[in-house]
Amino acid sequence: MTTQPDHTGELIPRPEQTPSALRAALAVVAPERLPEMDASQRAAVTEAIEQSGITPLRMFLLEWAAVIEIERFPDTARALRRVEYLARIAEDPEESRRYVRAAGDIIRAAHRAVGG
Asked: Per its UniProt entry, which superkingdom is the organism in (predicted)?
């Protein structure tokens, strides 16, 4: 009998930060977001050409690596969607700010995890 490696709840291993690896990972963890990623990639390429630099491409890779970092952990993805939802429906501005800060904490942690 073989056992699966314990990846502490991750759906897939962290992908390399290349367009093809990130796209393949997104196809597994959040396929509904592929059109959004494709549009973002086209915009980054256009911006890189206009700027004659690669910074927009690097930002594209980091942004989608962070999205995938969140989505590859279902509990984290659920937590983010929950606080984003609660921020939108909160009637008290301070309560809404607390949820926005919680969402920001999750997103910043994902960026740190992928080197951004």
From this structure: Bacteria
Give backbone dihedrals phi and psi of 7, rounded to 5 degrees, phi first: -110, 30
Residue-wise pLDDT for 5-63, tens only, equals 444 689 999 999 999 999 999 999 999 999 999 999 999 999 999 999 999 999 999 99
pLDDT in tens, 47-62: 999 999 999 999 999 9
Q: How many CB atoms lie within 10 A of CB 92?
A: 8
DSSP, collapsed to helix, strand or coil, labels residue 35 as helix
pTM of the model: 0.88
Dihedral sign, Cα of residue 24, residue 113, residue 77, residue 103: negative
